[in-house]
C-alpha cells in the first residue's frame, strides 16, 4: 500500500488541477493521496468528483504558521472543513495572501522588475496566491531561470529583497484549532533548512506536549542526517513519522509517491481523526 500524504493542486501553488492530481496519483500507483493545499480546502470537491476507483483521498491542508519569527508549515488532516473557528483562521491567512503578494510585486517593481499584479493573478488563477506564483512570473520575465532560483536572498526567500510577510498562525493555536475540528496535525518538513531558519527541537517538544501528532521526516528537503535526527526526535517525543512528496506538479521536480508514509502510520492518523473520513474512489468523472 503506497501512501503520499502531502500534495498541492491549483487550489494553491501546485500546477495540476485537483482532478488531474488524483488521476496522476492513481497513475503513479498510489493507494492513498492527501490533498494539502496551502491554507485552503477549495480543491476537495473537484478531487472527490474525479477520484479514480482504487485511490483513497485524505482531505487536508497545509497551514501557514510562525513562531518566534520563524515560518513553518503545519499539515492538518481529516478535520471538519466547516468547523467555524478553524475556517475563520484559514480564511484570514488565505485572504492576507493577496495584499502580501501585491506587496511583493511592488517590491520587485522598485527593484526594476517589470512584473505586474495582473500577471501574478493570472498565474495564480483562483488558487490561494503564494510566492511560487510570483516566482513563476519571474521565470516568465527571464529574471531567473527556475522557480527554485527565485527563492534566494536577492528575490523571494524568507527575508529576501522582495519578501513580504503574511499573517501566519501561532502553531500552538493551529494545533488547538485542528484538534477542535477533529483533525490531526503533522509538522511539515521541520528540518528544511534551505528554506530559511528552522524551529528548534525544544519548540517541537512543546508542540508535542500541546497535542502535535507527528512530524514529516521523509521529504526531499531533508538530507540523510536530518532524517536520522528527526526520526530520533519523533521516537523521544512519541510522535508519528510521515513521508511525502510535497508534490507541486511542474513547479517542483519531485514526483508523486517519491516519498511515502508507512501504512500503519496512515492507519493511526485515520483512527485519531474524527472530523472527516478518508474518501474511497468510485471511478470519478
Ligand atoms: P508562501 O506560502 O507564499 O510563503 O510560499 C511558500 C511556498 O514556496 C512553499 O510552499 C513552497 O511551495 C515554495 N518554497 C518555499 N521555499 C522554497 C525554496 N527554497 N525553493 C523552492 N520553493 C520554495
Ligand atoms: Fe507550496
Ligand atoms: Fe510546506
Ligand atoms: Zn507543501
Automatic annotation (TrEMBL):
UniProt-recorded Gene Ontology molecular function terms:
5'-3' DNA exonuclease activity; 5'-3' RNA exonuclease activity
Domain Polymerase/histidinol phosphatase N-terminal per the UniProt entry, residue ranges: 3-67
CDD domains hit by this protein: PHP_HisPPase_AMP
InterPro entries, A to Z: PHP_dom, PHP_domain, Pol/His_phosphatase_N, Pol/histidinol_Pase-like
In Swiss-Prot or TrEMBL terms, this protein is called Phosphoesterase
